[in-house]
Amino acid sequence: MTIIRSDEKLVCNLFLNKKGFVQYCTETQHHRGDQPDEDTWSFTYNNDGQLIKMVRSEGFETTTMKYHEGNIVETLVVSNEDNSHKNLSTIFYTSNKVTTPIVNKGCIMLFDTTLGIDMDEMKYAYYAGLLGKAIKNLPVKCVDDEGNVENYSWKLNSTGYPTQMKSEHGSYSFIW
Q1: How far does Cα 3 stand from its chain's mean position?
Q2: Which neighbouring-strand residues pair with 44?
């Protein structure tokens, strides 16, 4: 997988498991005029084909995802250097306004934005279907361990596919 940005080129060598999901990745970042940087990623999945663990050399981080009934309900980021806790997020699929979970008909996974997962450029591998199966429902709230709360509102089209997600920090539009 090659990602080209205005000032850099990222080359990701993706190694797949038996189910066709990325198990390991070596990433080389080519910056204009600089020596290439290299990072590695490894991924672990549950029996349902959902991502449960991501280890990355950048920042020496391990991110684990806890599931309940097909949804990520908690993410934890830990530094591998000193085993220190970095970030714990709890994800909710119902609220006072949304009393029934919204089916994730479009398989939307906004890792950084709604799930507390620092995925960076690996999100493109997810878009290609290479990072496991999506959560069952769309998240409506994320609370981190410092008490920060982010609420999400979803607009669906007549067939149940999300066309927009809004939060306090911006919005995303989806066209099907």
Answers
A1: 18
A2: 53
Query: What is the structure's pLDDT at 3?
Result: 92
* pLDDT tens digits for range 45-79: 999 999 999 999 988 899 999 999 999 999 999 98
- Token reading at 4: 């080209």
R_g of the chain, CA atoms, integer Å: 17
Going by C-alpha positions, the residue among 33, 56, 34 that lies closest to residue 120 is 56
User: Would you state the torsion angle of the CA atoms of residues 37, 12, 142, 19, taken in this order, to the nearest 10 degrees?
Assistant: -150
- Closest C-alpha to 72, from 122, 126, 138: 138
d(CA 68, CA 139): 13
Give the per-residue pLDDT at 8: 86
Distances from the Cα of 58 to the Cα of 37, 100, 168, angstroms: 10, 38, 28
Confirm if 59 and 79 have CB atoms less than 8 A apart: yes
List, for the chain, all residue ranges whose pLDDT scores fall below the cut of 50: none
Helix (H, G, I), strand (E, B) or coil at 98: coil
Instruction: Of 75, 67, 71, give the one whose Cα is nearest residue 94.
Output: 71
